[in-house]
Amino acid sequence: MVELEQTIKNVYFLGIGGIGMSALARYFKAKGYKVAGYDRTLSALTQKMQAEEEIRINYIDEEEEIPAEFRDKTTTLVVYTPAIPGDNRQRAYFVGAGFDLHKRAEVLGMISRKGKAICVAGTHGKTTVSTLTAFLLKNSTVGCNAFLGGIAANFGTNLLLDRNSSYIVIEADEFDRSFLHLSPEIAVITAMDEDHLDIYENKANLLEAFEAFAGQVNPQGGRLFLKKGLQLKQTQVTGYYGVEVKADCYADGLRIEQGRYVFDYHGRGVDIEGLILGIPGRLNVENATAAITLALEAGVQPEEIRRALPDFKGVARRFNIQVYTEKTIYIDDYAHHPREIEASLSSIREMWPAKRLTVAFQPHLYSRTNDFYPEFAKSLNLADQVILLDIYPAREQPIPGVTSKLIADRLTVPFVRVTKEEFPEYVKENVKEGIFMTVGAGDIDRFIPVFTEMFNHPDC
Questions:
Q1: How many CB atoms lie within 10 A of CB 41?
Q2: Residue 320, strand partner residues
Q3: Contact 36, 55 (CB under 8 A)
Q4: Phi, psi of 334, deg, nearest 5
Q5: CA-to-CA distance for 346 and 352, rounded, in angstroms?
Q6: Contact (Cβ atoms closer than 8 angstroms) between residue 168 and residue 118
Q7: Sign of dihedral through CA atoms 386, 389, 390, 393?
Q8: Which end of the chain, C or N, has fewer beta carbons within 10 A?
Q9: The whole model's pTM is what?
């Protein structure tokens, strides 16, 4: 496990524009370190870091781009993300110069041991649960620090700092077994569905990793909660949570009032009736149940939760309603696993059963598409029409024969396959009313401003 040497004054990030890496970069900047880094792509996030936080970022993979003061291995900590390939020239420079390079997860683990870590793990839901948990703590006398996997709409950032609180809310990422570096005081596991099989190969290995994560919860008074239905073989579980199912902590009495979910929460020695959820989607009632459980365990009072919950605005790209007019509702969602898509579309069907639903989906990763194309088709069949884009490769090379056609061939609803160049015009000509949804973890989000303007236009 990495621990921060007292001689470290500078921190350099390889892949600084990633959502997790940028939170770490902001943390070290706020702590008084000099921070710089490389990223392949200029983005709104990196621009903001440069302009508002004076973090130096370069976008050319050349050794010469590394500032001189970040070339001393006795004073510089180098942090990298697995998304940075081994042949990256800047990475090769640091390796050749004898630097010890550390994964983001190692450094986050070091930080987690400096306070009381509240860790949110799971193949789905962890970004919303961790962000809502942090929101509830921030709006209480408890307070918290937080490293989030998305931009919290209420705060406009993925990093929260509070020198008066010992709690640190952390999204515990199972990718590359990163969460095994964390030391939780309180933890929750939201889901353990097959995913990241390019890393784990099979579900047995994935479950083994979650078992190991659960085993890292502080044995002296630590607490672990699981969604009801999940099972761990060796680890003692404090409690289970669920929605409209009896568990140690659960929500029931769900109803929709003025377009928002209202529900009652029952937990360990506490009942909170008539809670109003500020974000849409039945799946978010489940996320809220997990977050409320964690917040109560950290000492947040029931009335503090009641006051704060209606004001939670969610996380960027997590079931975000971008446009809501009498004619059209436009929703964007980060869902990239069949279970996530099914949950999102089911929520839409429950809230707006009479509206026509058109879903535009960009598959993420060749390996994930190859592993789950029948399940993707099954979940997308909940729509009235599907628009399929090409696979977003991210870190992968193409797999022969693996395209979005694998999904298309198993759809039972009307569909069309389009390129990104054809995408906006097709939507403009063919989606006139009802609900339109963009879904995927790739770069489909670049079309959000286009469709927001399109559907807000009076002639649309």
A1: 9
A2: 332
A3: yes
A4: -85, -5
A5: 10
A6: yes
A7: negative
A8: N
A9: 0.81
